[in-house]
Each structure stands twice: as C-alpha cells, then as structure tokens.
Amino acid sequence: MLYEFLISLALFFICFNLFTFLFPLTNNSIYNSLERVEEFIYSRTKYKTVLVGSGLIADLYKKGDLENSFNLNFPYYGSCTGIRIIALSNKIPNRLIIEINYIFKGFDEQLITKVFQHPWYQLKFLFPIILKKNNPFKLVKKIIKYFFKKTNEADTMTEEFDENSYNMFIHAYKKIPEPNKFECDIKQLEKDIKYLYSRGCEIIFVEIPTDKLISQTELFKYQREKIIKTFHKDIYKWIPTDLLHAYKTTDGIHLTRKSKEYFAIYLLNEIAKMTVVKPSNIVEI
Predict the structure, then answer these.
(1) What is the pLDDT of residues 5-52, one digit of tens each?
(2) What is residue 160's three-state secondary structure?
(3) Per-domain boundaries in the chain
(4) What's the pTM value of the predicted model, to 2 decimals?
C-alpha cells in the first residue's frame, strides 16, 4: 500500500513538473515578493523592458503598455532590491526604468539571501514544480478565489483625501536617512547600475509625482540631490518632470486614479522618445 502510494506520488511529481516545464503558468497577479522574484528569474522570457521601484510604479504599470516588459516592484522597499536581483540573476533587459522615490529604503537583504543562497536555486530552473506559484495546493486556492472573487472592486473604491496619512508622511520625511547606511546603499546601487550599463542596458530614471510639500521635505530633497549627483544626466537618461499637469494624490504620496492614468501616458510617451543607445565604452566596475 505504501509502495503504491509512493509510486503514485512520484508519477504525479514527474507529470506535473513536465507539464509546468512545457507549459509554464504565468502569474498575472503577484502579491508576494518571493513569487514576483521567481516569476522574473525563472521565466524563460527575455524581457525587453523591466521596471523597478516601490508600489508607486506598480500602480502605473499595466500589462501590455510596454511590449515584453516586467514590473519588478517591492512595495515595502523599492528599486535597490529589484536592481540587485537583476544584477545577481544576470537576466539583463535592454532597458531598465528606475523609480527613485524610495531609494532610501535600501535593500531587502533577507529576500535577496532567501533567493540566491537557497540550496534549490539552480534546481528550480529544471524543476518548476518547486516554484511557489506552482504549489498544487496554492493553485487550487487560486482557482477557488478566481471563481468567488468580487467584481468591480476597483470601481467601488473611494478616493477621499486621507489627512491623517498625509500628516504622517510630512512628519516622517522631515528627517534625512541615516547617512552612513544611505551612502553604503548608494555605493552598492551605483556598482549594480554600472554593471548593467556595461552590459548594454539602457538606464532610465523617473521620479513619480507626489504632493508638492512632500516632494520638498528634507528626506526627498536629500535623496534627490544624492541620486542626481551619483547618476549623471550626461551618462544616464532621466524622465523630465511634467510641469504641465497638476497631479493629485489621495494622501500626499499615492496618485489618484485619474492622475495615475495621466502620468502613465506621460511616462510611456517620454520613453517612446528615447532610443536604446548601448554604451560605447565598457564601464569599469
């Protein structure tokens, strides 16, 4: 009896792994950071464009807006983590769009270690059944959730201005990041970006619009100056600030639905103006 059970289990593992290898499942709704990283690394797609940043850039991205693209966002961290993952995985896109708003949050070292120092890191390329998204129990749960999910949930969401969150952000961003840690993070970020640039990746920086008072807090001014100084505009590309539209937020940080739509269009138009230019010289790391 036990022998038959083990044989059945082995056959299931082999068949299900073969199925997911030949017909990889695409996770279109990824809410977990580890799933998002696995989707990027283990997908056999060579992405033309990758966006990195916090939840701010995730809100702007819609599948299909940019051909053959991937949004490697981390809501509680930001661009540093995404860029480090791209560099370590060596899965380098033609173009990288970097949101600078939350650079000061640094690297999610725990996630990076969990991904690249996992004993099954290489095995996951051959056995996709190990990937978190392919867990049979998780798939059943997703199927059930799909059929019972609420419809038009986004349409019922209110966008009333959250005064409490706004005041909290104003207070929190009066202080600059811890200087030593921030300098170390910027140096590592610079190293990673130089490496990607030397491999022919077009680098584009963008700052997502926020409330004017918040954008001029000590933290954001300090961060902006450091990043502009480190990543010169004569080497890397920057999306210019949109001075023709007054963007509105729900809390000083997150754009309203209409402002998201407007800025997404603006961002796509600015990207379209830029052509991919590979560096003429290899950057020394």
Answers:
(1) 456 555 655 665 555 555 555 655 556 899 999 999 999 889 999 999
(2) coil
(3) 1-30+133-150, 31-118+162-273
(4) 0.83
